[in-house]
Every structure is written in structure tokens, then in C-alpha cells.
């Protein structure tokens, strides 16, 4: 049975999305509760898989990763073996921040973060040497207007 989420749970999740590094005391204060009930709710949501891995968001540009490419991939191969090889190649490449299988004319879209165009070309050359791809279109993001991992609770 799935865990039911109530308004207090949503407040807690919103606080965690805003800043997962804040103390339990601060979360409890911000949601209008005490520490123990908040901790119990967080624990239950972790156990239910609602709260997953906790991590830190890094500033890509401050670390020298100034180029973000959206890579559109069309393939003529849809066999299971090809797909497993392709997915393995994507998972092994740290430059790939996101990968989605799409409906429509494009089969896959990737979000690739690299230092510059030369680094993208190295990524591209490595990918096509590992997996047969029918068509690749790379789009360079000129400006990131909005980026969030927060869900609209």
C-alpha cells in the first residue's frame, strides 16, 4: 500500500526541496511542528521511496563546465541488444546529466554538460564509436533561463 501524503508531509517535502541541509529543528519550526513527528514523517517517506538520494547542487559554470548541449538522437536500430548497449554507454558517461526516451520523430534527448565545444566533440566521438546512431543533432544552450529539480507540491 502506498504511503498517503497529507498537507504536513507536503510542507516537510517543500522545506527539504528548498534546503535539504537545514537542521531538523529548522524544518520542524518552519512547518509548525516539533522535531520527533517531523523526523518520523521523513523516515516513513524515505522508506516509501518518496524521498530518494540526497545530494548537493553544484554550480557547473563556477566549476568550469560552461557548455550545456541538448543532444537529439534518432536511431534506426530498436532491437533490445542495441538499446542495452546504448543505455550502458549513456550511464557510463558522466557528461550526460539527463537522458529521456521520447515519443515522436526524435528517439532520445540528452542533456550533456561539458567544459567547452571541444569537450562535447570528444563526448560525441566516444559515443558514436561505442554505438551505431542514425542521426545526432546537438543544440548549444545559450542561456539557462530556469533550472530546478523541485516538484510543484
TrEMBL record:
<dbReference type="Pfam" id="PF01037">
    <property type="entry name" value="AsnC_trans_reg"/>
</dbReference>
<dbReference type="InterPro" id="IPR036390">
    <property type="entry name" value="WH_DNA-bd_sf"/>
</dbReference>
<dbReference type="InterPro" id="IPR019885">
    <property type="entry name" value="Tscrpt_reg_HTH_AsnC-type_CS"/>
</dbReference>
<dbReference type="InterPro" id="IPR011008">
    <property type="entry name" value="Dimeric_a/b-barrel"/>
</dbReference>
<dbReference type="InterPro" id="IPR036388">
    <property type="entry name" value="WH-like_DNA-bd_sf"/>
</dbReference>
<keyword id="KW-0238">DNA-binding</keyword>
<dbReference type="InterPro" id="IPR000485">
    <property type="entry name" value="AsnC-type_HTH_dom"/>
</dbReference>
<keyword id="KW-0805">Transcription regulation</keyword>
<keyword id="KW-0804">Transcription</keyword>
<dbReference type="InterPro" id="IPR011991">
    <property type="entry name" value="ArsR-like_HTH"/>
</dbReference>
<feature type="domain" description="HTH asnC-type">
    <location>
        <begin position="5"/>
        <end position="66"/>
    </location>
</feature>
<dbReference type="Pfam" id="PF13412">
    <property type="entry name" value="HTH_24"/>
</dbReference>
<dbReference type="InterPro" id="IPR019887">
    <property type="entry name" value="Tscrpt_reg_AsnC/Lrp_C"/>
</dbReference>
<dbReference type="InterPro" id="IPR019888">
    <property type="entry name" value="Tscrpt_reg_AsnC-like"/>
</dbReference>
<protein>
    <submittedName>
        <fullName>Lrp/AsnC family transcriptional regulator</fullName>
    </submittedName>
</protein>
